Amino acid sequence: MAPLKFRKIAVLGYRSVGKSSLTIQFVEGQFIDCYDPTIENTFNKAVNFGGQDFHLQLVDTAGQDEYSMFSRSHTMDVHGYVLVYSVTSMKSFEVIKAIRGKLLDMVGKVQIPTVLVANKRDLTTERVVKTEEGKKLADSWGAAFLESSAKQNDTAVEIFKMIIQEIEKADGYTQDKKCHMM
């Protein structure tokens, strides 16, 4: 049996985009209706993806804007990033670009394991950011992309499965790898 892998994942985005809702939906399986601004929370969850056991430490951050100072905890020993914007807020879509730029500057890399999440897709009448815009942005970053609704709980598990896959890919591991003896 493969040893347990520890992975630290930071969830970042503009305020009120659903970072905490997605994280709590994944960890506890419930949607929190009332909004209480997050300062910073850390959640732990053990999961098995693809036959591999993982211990996930999820850092649910306070909402950032383009002028926010980044805490060192957002980059120290972090393996991957879930960057969240709301499909109902063009501002959150613009801010996520600035957040990623700051992240890259801080970690000193041009590529980091990332899943870009367009949250609140259930609010169809309030949508201002098109699916194609999010997909195009994710493609330009070389990131995975997913639209989500924390309220409907249709993709919370998928988001964290995708970030684990992105981290493993960056570490040079793919599920398709096989060892052949000659």
UniProtKB/TrEMBL annotation:
<keyword id="KW-0342">GTP-binding</keyword>
<dbReference type="GO" id="GO:0003924">
    <property type="term" value="F:GTPase activity"/>
</dbReference>
<dbReference type="Pfam" id="PF00071">
    <property type="entry name" value="Ras"/>
</dbReference>
<keyword id="KW-0460">Magnesium</keyword>
<comment type="subunit">
    <text>Associates with the mTORC1 complex (MTOR, MLST8 and RPTOR) in a guanyl nucleotide-independent manner. Interacts with TSC2. Interacts with MCRS1; the interaction maintains RHEB at the lysosome in its active GTP-bound form and prevents its interaction with the mTORC1 complex inhibitor TSC2, ensuring activation of the mTORC1 complex by RHEB. Interacts (when prenylated) with PDE6D; this promotes release from membranes.</text>
</comment>
<dbReference type="GO" id="GO:0046872">
    <property type="term" value="F:metal ion binding"/>
</dbReference>
<comment type="similarity">
    <text>Belongs to the small GTPase superfamily. Rheb family.</text>
</comment>
<dbReference type="InterPro" id="IPR027417">
    <property type="entry name" value="P-loop_NTPase"/>
</dbReference>
<dbReference type="GO" id="GO:0007165">
    <property type="term" value="P:signal transduction"/>
</dbReference>
<dbReference type="GO" id="GO:0000139">
    <property type="term" value="C:Golgi membrane"/>
</dbReference>
<keyword id="KW-0547">Nucleotide-binding</keyword>
<keyword id="KW-0472">Membrane</keyword>
<keyword id="KW-0378">Hydrolase</keyword>
<dbReference type="GO" id="GO:0005765">
    <property type="term" value="C:lysosomal membrane"/>
</dbReference>
<protein>
    <recommendedName>
        <fullName>GTP-binding protein Rheb</fullName>
    </recommendedName>
</protein>
<keyword id="KW-0488">Methylation</keyword>
<comment type="function">
    <text>Small GTPase that acts as an allosteric activator of the canonical mTORC1 complex, an evolutionarily conserved central nutrient sensor that stimulates anabolic reactions and macromolecule biosynthesis to promote cellular biomass generation and growth.</text>
</comment>
<keyword id="KW-0479">Metal-binding</keyword>
<dbReference type="GO" id="GO:0005525">
    <property type="term" value="F:GTP binding"/>
</dbReference>
<dbReference type="InterPro" id="IPR005225">
    <property type="entry name" value="Small_GTP-bd"/>
</dbReference>
<dbReference type="InterPro" id="IPR020849">
    <property type="entry name" value="Small_GTPase_Ras-type"/>
</dbReference>
<keyword id="KW-0449">Lipoprotein</keyword>
<dbReference type="GO" id="GO:0005789">
    <property type="term" value="C:endoplasmic reticulum membrane"/>
</dbReference>
<keyword id="KW-0636">Prenylation</keyword>
<dbReference type="InterPro" id="IPR001806">
    <property type="entry name" value="Small_GTPase"/>
</dbReference>
